[in-house]
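Quick start: what a row looks like.
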Amino acid sequence: MAALDSLSLFTGLGLSEHKARETLKNTALSAQLREAATQAQQTLGSTIDKATGTLLYGLASRLRDPRRLSFLVSYIANKKIHTELQLSAALEYVRSHPLDPINTEDFEQECGVGVMVTPEQIEEAVEAAINRHQPQLLEERYRFNMGLLMGEARAVLKWADGRMIKHEVDMQVLHLLGPKTETDLEKKPKVSKARPEEKDRRTAKDLMENGEAADQGLSLMEQLRGEALKFHKPGENYKTPGYVTTPHTMDLLKQHLEITGGQVRTRFPPEPNGILHIGHAKAINFNFGYAKANNGICFLRFDDTNPEKEEARFFTAICDMVSWLGYTPYKVTYASDYFDQLYAWAMELIHRGQAYVCHQRGEELKGHNSLPSPWRDRPIEESLLLFEAMRKGKFAEGEATLRMKLVMEDGKMDPVAYRVKYTPHHRTGDTWCIYPTYDYTHCLCDSIEHITHSLCTKEFQARRSSYFWLCNALDVYCPVQWEYGRLNLHYAVVSKRKILQLVAAGAVRDWDDPRLFTLTALRRRGFPPEAINNFCARVGVTVAQTTMEPHLLEACVRDVLNDTAPRAMAVLEPLQVIITNFPAIKSLDIQVPNFPADETKGFHQVPFGPMVFIERTDFKEEPEPGYKRLAWGQPVGLRHTGYVIELQNVFKGPTGCVESLEVTCRQADAGEKPKAFIHWVSQPLTCEIRLYERLFQHKNPEDPAEVPGGFLSDLNLASLQVVEAALVDCSVALAKPFDKFQFERLGYFSVDPDSCQGQLVFNRTVTLKEDPGKV
């Protein structure tokens, strides 16, 4: 009967039956709306009209401090607050003024109570806005952005009815321009998009400026500094929309400021159960970058609460990657540092009647519509004894959990705080056999470390209510959780489980296979950390989840390597060339600039002798039209030598394959310019070169609609090509793992850790921007 009464009450407010039933599923919302409607009826003494009902629903769904319910209901019922704009202002006011009593005069002024906006005032404001933009209006007619006019009128008349402003704008624009013509009704012509191959030739700056990523040219520090993100100031947590205050909030914030001195504090809290990937790079840049940009500190805190999945190598790799990206934590901490305190708080939570020991099994707890626990109302003393028994190892895994008494934003009821696990912990050994969950640990560790801004990805938004609830239930300092969008890439898989499947299937070697988008893989492939940070900056600190094209990241890589990778020459498919009239008795030493565009950065020396090797593709006996490299009657220049070679003889093996060439050479004079200059090597080193392409064939390999057979069926079998006998000039002989070079006309390459004495191995990081068929 109670549910039917509430359903009737809610539909009486103007809610559709479907909306009313959905509201009833949310216990907290339905209770607050029921109370608001009851109070309004008592004030009105009659039924509630739909406009008032809509405002009451908006109040109940958005008010985080129930103490203010009666105060705000009275203003709505008495029509002192009668628009959505006023309600939003009222909610903002009570949120930012948590202390009693409320200054009524100040409140009413901030919420526009008693302010009357006449039709004449609206007419004048709209007319003034139209006069300011009249030339542009006459030129663009109905393609002009009418929202600009409404916005300017609204700025003058803050409390005006938005519908009345829109109606007045429509009328005055019609009077000025007349009815729409056929030209006005035509769609705007679409701006033609660059072809993919043209897009790839642009720099990262070009790509971002043309809207393919949204940084507006700002550096990461500029995006994160001060007011740029509209975050709260330290100590002003209560001004954040949705932040829940209690009678203890202001005292706790005062103590917090005494400890931190008003300093910004963030944390990067990875789980040590896998290798970080490109998405984590955004999280690292956001957390460490926000602290750095605002003269704060950032903790690196390992969320080591699941000993079954944690390995020492993951701790080391995570620290290495944070350092590699250029950040130094203020302090490295572990959730396990706080196990004693977390346990004591769990006992306190039980004491306060906010947690209980439950015996439902894991499969019974799954999903959002699980059955309520039959042990939810067990006596406090009984839960205390049972929780201590869990601590002492008297329950098997899965036999008992500690659950918190709350309903989360996604409808999940009573999340688990502690569970039994008998796996030894990497730091605490066998000291504990119960371990806290993320939902319990995360906010309390943030509180212990006095984090000011708890930055996390959007999927944790559903846990925000439990975050605030738990801190407030224990009367401890409550930080603010802010969410941002995840960063994903097309043609990539980053989940730990799926990468393990790729390794098991032999599709990749390990977590650092250069075809993956883990950070260790990107480092091994030769991506500079500056390029990854630049990419994160250019993507921007977005709230929406973003899935970017890999070529945007590669453009950032080229931008950095173009300025930092010295040039060298290498030949992937060697063709021997004998210079029959070599101009010296012995080899010549050729000075090659490390960076041809800036010779102040120095030179390296390479030998030039009568035998050189060129790319097999740089010679054709029967060239097609437009071919510009070596052919009969078509000489080419050898880069950096000042010599031109001309074909004299072609030598072939038994199969008809060209094995070597004989050429003559002459010095290039000022009047002679060959059609092409090709790279070459002489007295070279033999090396292995690994050429990488995309690991997957489709943009979204995990999407069943795009790849019905699953991501393992989408592998690109040509994603790795190994050139075992490539030749490289001797200037790279002393190169160490991760040293980077531009091999002229081929791309950017990095020395792989598999290299050993006398046998270098190179990974192709990215190709050059230019079409490799051009010189």
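That is the whole record. Residues 190-216, 770-775 have pLDDT under 50 and may be disordered. The chain has 27 helices and 26 strands.
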